[in-house]
Amino acid sequence: MQGVGGNGTRRQKRECGAKYREKRADFGDQRDLLSGTPAQKIDSRRVCSETVAMRDTLPYARPGQTIGLLGGSFDPAHEGHAHITREALKRFGLDRVWWLVSPGNPLKPKGPAPIARRIQAARAIIDHPRVCITDIEAQIGTRYTAQTLTRLQQLYPGVRFVWLMGADNLAGFHRWENWQWIMENVPIGVLARPGQRLQARMSKAAESYARYRVSSDQARLLGQMSAPAWCFVNVPMLSVSSSEIRARGEWKHD
After folding, report:
1. Helices 115-125 and 79-91 meet at what angle, rounded to 10?
2. In angstroms, rounded to a whole number, what is the distance separating the alpha carbons of residues 186 and 32?
3. Phi and psi of 96, rounded to 5°?
4. CA-CA distance, 144 to 148, in Å (whole number)?
5. Tell me: the pLDDT tens digits for 14-71?
6. Cβ(189)–Cβ(160) below 8 Å
7. What does the pLDDT look like over 139-159, one tens digit per residue?
């Protein structure tokens, strides 16, 4: 486990809180983009009015970069998350990985610990110059992954995003809101986790998009490919989970 000292904290703040300097699409273009994604129920007037206010608080990325997105409640974050993040940086040729600490998981009935506490714990798990811990979903007001990806593509024109997930998530991916839209609009990098490899490869999502699977020897090119494109890589995994940590009483919500 990597602890965050004073210098590490300052580096995280410089990376995650850097000014949103790049010129973004004008408001008219954003309205056009929104109207082109009917599956995403986002008010275009709210998008335009909030964009300027958010520029100073969102993580920085410049056009041409490839950013891996690892979403989840991180309730709590653990070394397994840090491990797959480091592997994703190497395997998929990513410039950065952002941890999207969500306000809550729509598929889970019980809410997580307060987001500020989860972010603090996440920053205590990994201190890496190319990893940013962010509450961007809370800032932009999205609930589902498809909505988040739509907004990120609007806010960061020219930046390439790769959605990252464990093999267990792929097994149930067909239950996600607008999962087919996600497959068809953002490349996906899947990292194998213990006991989930066979189930993931036989999942509805894997079978439905089998012809778009990228071989592992081309994994580093994933971010340069047009969706649909997904890659399944086997990596040494740590057998640890947030639910196990909570069950042992090592992480409490109150």
Report:
1. 60
2. 19
3. -145, 160
4. 6
5. 555 443 334 333 333 333 333 344 344 445 445 444 444 455 689 999 999 999 999 9
6. no
7. 999 989 999 999 999 999 999
